[in-house]
């Protein structure tokens, strides 16, 4: 969530931004719930494609992996 907040602040202030690849990396390493919460709280990257689709795929794979681990 912090990365999304900092990127939103940088966008508003016209400063250097956090790359989408870095934001997606944070989601991959377990930050997808925070990414979705931050998108809603800060209204940031909500309509951005293909970012939204990529984040959805990451979250879906994480949910699938979690279910798989629970069933084993």
TrEMBL record:
The chain crosses the membrane at residues 23-39, 51-71. It comes from the Bacteria. This is DUF1294 domain-containing protein. Keywords: Membrane, Transmembrane, Transmembrane helix. Pfam families: DUF1294 (PF06961). InterPro entries: Cold_shock_CspA (IPR012156), DUF1294 (IPR010718). One of its GO terms (molecular function) is nucleic acid binding. It comes from Sphingomonas rhizophila.
């Amino acid at each position: 969530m912090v990365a999304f907040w900092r990127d939103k602040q940088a966008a508003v202030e016209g400063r250097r931004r956090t790359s989408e690849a870095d934001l997606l990396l944070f989601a991959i390493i377990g930050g997808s719930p925070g990414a979705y919460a931050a998108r809603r709280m800060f209204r940031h990257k909500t309509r951005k494609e293909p970012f939204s689709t990529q984040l959805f795929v990451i979250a879906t794979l994480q949910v699938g992996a979690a279910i798989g681990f629970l069933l084993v």
